[in-house]
Design brief:
With about 230 residues, this protein is an alpha/beta fold. The chain has a single domain, classed as Rossmann fold (3-Layer(aba) Sandwich), CATH 3.40.50. It has a five-stranded mixed β-barrel, surrounded by five helices. It is globular, with a radius of gyration of 17 Å. The protein starts with a strand and ends with a helix.
Length: about 230
Amino acid sequence: MKKKRIGMVIAVEFEPFKAAYGDPKETIKDRGYEISCYEKENYELYVIPSGIGEVAAAASTQYLIDKYHVEMILNYGVVGGLSEKLGHALSCLVKEIVDYRFDTSAIDHVEIGRHIEFPSVVLTTDEALRKKALEVDPNILEVRCASGDIFVDDPAEKKKIRDQFGADICEMEAAGIYLIAHRNGVPALFFKVIADTLFGGAGEYQEKSRDAARDCVAILENVIANL
């Protein structure tokens, strides 16, 4: 049976993943990247630590698609919560993404956050992959993710993003990954776990991010095995 080829983009939270999965079968250094290759019974997994931000994540996504011909892209990471209802260590499945810092409105009068090739500000992630993930963990919360190249530390700014875009969480990579995967016809699945809450910030993120990432990996491992 042909094994699935899965690509995984991780911004900075690689150590919790390695602690769960162990040493890779092979580590490849190429073009400034370091790719960890894992081989399981029914899939091959190519893991790339992209670094922080949309550009780095987008470039890493394209690299995995071109180099390893992956059939899907997975992304996990720690995020900020935008609502009082979303507490620390809550794991989330991203249903929708808004590239909330993307703004060409001065030249084309398109609303803030919308890429002109899409009919809406809201980018909907792959339904089939989300359905499979929910079969594995029916209790995981589906959310809308605000993605943009800035770490949001201020509670007032978090509330503004929530109110303007209807977002539940914010982070810095999902939009870049989504756009590249979509343009290549490769489905993508996003798992996030909240490190800093609405009234938290950089301090809470630094304190809680490792534990939060570890919790997310535990769910992700189970989902990958059942894709």
